[in-house]
Amino acid sequence: MTASSESASSPLRGKIALVTGASGGIGLITARELARRGARVVMVCRNPERGEQARTAIREAVGSDAQLDLLLCDLSLLANVRTLAGEVTRRFNQLDILVNNAGIFPGPLTITEEGHELSWATNHLAVFALTNLLLPQLLAAPQARIVTVSSEAHWLGEIEQSTEARNAPEKYSSFTAYCDSKLANIMFTSELAHRLDLTKVTANCLHPGMVDTGLVNTGSSPLMKAMWWTARPFMISPEKGARTSIYLASSPEVESVSGKYFKNRKPTRASGRSQSRPEAARLWRLSQEETGVE
Ligand SMILES: NC(=O)c1ccc[n+]([C@@H]2O[C@H](COP(=O)([O-])OP(=O)(O)OC[C@H]3O[C@@H](n4cnc5c(N)ncnc54)[C@H](OP(=O)(O)O)[C@@H]3O)[C@@H](O)[C@H]2O)c1
User: Fold this and answer.
1) Is the pTM value of this prediction over 0.85?
2) Which CATH architecture has domain 3-291?
3) Bridge partners (DSSP) listed for residue 45
């Protein structure tokens, strides 16, 4: 293979990409396709067996020369997120691509041992903390991209302004909690893109489509499981669901695009609330207080 044909088939050669939730669903396909394009992929998974199975599956699909690091982390706890960020910082001088993909659709109200509602902790606080803790590595890359997997569910979201309100059993609904966390993903991305203006780091987010994955699982409410099973025939495969994540993480077309919400590899309209600068700035301050990350 000549040097030019190798760079055409491996456009991400020399780049380091971290994908959270790489053990299954959209994250596994995203990690696989970034590895196929030549990136060294840091797979962040919480379950060692599922993580190893995913790594083996990617090797089998891409080839034995795929460069895959597996880091274990339950992202629902900020202490773990800090340990993960420390490990990544120790191992890598720079990070070219960060895909905040891991997420849950919560079941009954669960408060983590650090005092946060589980989906808020996993879907938003971990994203906020990990991204900010890895910013020095991202800023050290010649050009870096942050991609966060949100959802059209954000249209129904609202941001509670206190932990107490979010954790109140009488107000809790798993559906609302999920929507709120996905709204936070978009508000976080637009504030982050604003703060990274004039740097070579971009931040975008996306809706992957309705994707047939394990997002709604045995822990979900019977109503949610019934709705999910009814919708399954109309859902797209994880391969298709990962396309926009892969596009934002790797396509030259979006190298300098930042602060946008994508669907089907195109920028699309997000809710008015998600685009409010004052609300995004307020969420940023709230997230700083709740994570202790500046
Ligand atoms: N599926 C859809 O229709 C849809 C629609 C809109 C948005 N999304 C978003 O797409 C993203 C990926 O979801 P998916 O549909 O691919 O679901 P999935 O198959 O359930 O994958 C979720 C991934 O996140 C990981 N994860 C969950 N909690 C974690 C934790 N505490 N620490 C570390 N990893 C954790 C899971 O690990 P385990 O393997 O250990 O469970 C899994 O790898 C999520 O952010 C979701 O909100 C999905």
Assistant:
1) yes
2) 3-Layer(aba) Sandwich (3.40)
3) 72
